[in-house]
Design goal:
The protein is 27% helix and 24% strand. With 164 residues, it is an alpha/beta fold. Strands 5-4-3-6-7 form a five-stranded mixed β-sheet. It has a two-stranded antiparallel ribbon with strand order 1-2. A hairpin with a 5-residue loop joins strand 6 and strand 7 (138-143).
Length: 164
């Protein structure tokens, strides 16, 4: 079960692939600048994750107008994420939770990803969404039990409107 609303968002430092190479992204350095939407996805280069992040990319202006920064997190390495983003036109900042520590801190790790499809990897993030306000408190929390199920982006946007 994902962390509950009203909970202080756990801080983390993860790697992203910047123009000059690997860069560090620390959540606490971004708290207070805007609201933050954290989107956890299972894996790069998969249909559902590509659909989700391409859709969100197309709506980035709307999130900006709602005073929100959208961040994507998966367990893939930052170089694979960068290739995926380039191939698919994904414009979100993508963070590599390669060791699944952030996924575990937000309580959205799968024990076994998709055993029916022989994908038994533990620690893979559930498709999840969190809205973190400017004080660093989780105002919206959602984790899907099946990777094909998408977050409720209408509720995410409603939550952001309520923070304005």
């Amino acid at each position: 079960m994902a962390l509950a609303t009203g909970t202080k968002a756990p801080d983390f430092t993860l790697v992203t692939k910047g123009a000059e190479g690997p860069e560090l992204f620390t959540l606490s350095e971004h708290i207070g600048k805007s609201n933050i939407v954290l989107l956890f996805v299972p894996m790069a280069f998969t249909g559902g994750c590509t659909t989700e992040f391409c859709s969100v990319t197309n709506e980035l202006d709307e999130y900006t107008q709602l005073d929100a920064t959208v961040i994507g997190i998966s367990g893939d390495n930052p170089f694979a994420q960068a290739e995926w983003a380039e191939k698919e036109g994904i414009k979100l900042t993508l963070l590599s939770d390669y060791e699944h520590k952030t996924t575990e801190a937000y309580d959205v790790a799968n024990e076994s990803f998709l055993p029916d499809a022989n994908l038994i990897m533990g620690g893979v993030p559930k498709r999840s969404a969190f809205v973190i306000d400017k004080e660093g408190v989780i105002q919206y929390s959602e984790a899907q039990e099946h990777p094909k199920d998408m977050p409720d982006f209408d509720k995410i946007k409603e939550t952001l409107k309520g923070l304005a």
